[in-house]
Amino acid sequence: xxxxxxxxxxxxxxxxxxxxxxxxxxxxxxxxxxxxxxxxxxxxxxxxxxxxxxxxxxxxxxxxxxxxxxxxxxxxxxxxxxxxxxxxxxxxxxxxxxxxxxxxxxxxxxxxxxxxxxxxxxxxxxxxxxxxxxxxxxxxxxxxxxxxxxxxxxxxxxxxxxxxxxxxxxxxxxxxxxxxxxxxxxxxxxxxxxxxxxxxxxxxxxxxxxxxxxxxxxxxxxxxxxxxxxxxxxxxxxxxxxxxxxxxxxxxxxxxxxxxxxxxxxxxxxxxxxxxxxxxxxxxxxxxxxxxxxxxxxxxxxxxxxxxxxxxxxxxxxxxxxxxxxxxxxxxxxxxxxxxxxxxxxxxxxxxxxxxxxxxxxxxxxxxxxxxxxxxxxxxxxxxxxxxxxxxxxxxxxxxxxxxxxxx
Length: 408
Hints:
single chain, 17 helices, 47% helix
């Protein structure tokens, strides 16, 4: 297409999609299925959203796009504490070249050998929590298991003493409210969570500097000799973001994995083939990701597929819609753990901004699922799962009641 034919991005040039209620993922999928008959770009109440797989993948690594910076939260009327989070903790939002400097130091804490060493701890934590559920039938996967399991894994990774885990209390769940839209009603709880966690992590960093070790904090502190120094706020923010990115997402996602396997009749099929567990986890990550979108901001005017995007434009890369693109995944709305290459989904992003904790998340869900399959040979729904109301970048079951005896 010649430059003369290029069009400037305007509302008139992009169709509008009315998003259904957050608890209706089927409706959301149908809305984007209908929109796919139109161009690859749509408008929603959140702004301009890219819904095609190929476009999402290309734009997620395009250097003309950057993190959205603190302006995203500033537009939502964020508090001082949330703005600290946006500028110091939220790695996906931090702009280049600062993003690359912080990421380079943090990636030392997410190596495959470090994650592999956590497998025995993951299994022990999962088995202990499952045994605590032994006298409950029905039980709630979220309240009885995933509220606690990912936080224990993360604390082990970070070097948090076991006796301190309870100090986190509701902070970790309240931090997940950062994904809500609108933000304002949730600010008091978010502010309290950030203040509490900042104070705790400042103590943890101090202890690590006094007593070097092999945990995540000590590793990142040591890595700065090679990667360049992080400020105290950046290191504290990195720990807070690790907790935000690794707790609520896995808390939601593991419940979704179990729900999909039970609802679609795959539970016993997966139980008979342990090698199929990683594929089942990735298929759930593709079909029902806990995190639905990635945010990018245009750094400079550029042309993409005949549209001129002015500098400063906010783009929502809708990975939920991209993961259901039939051009990439045949029968995209079907849950099929035997699908070829389910790991090609965009739930964790791609390129230089791919989620650093993707291997940790996949591993801890696979280990937990193995424990569940061993302990519960039969599972059935004991009621309808509950999903939080309201529009959010993060979604999943809040409660998932299950019974270990399949009704006749």
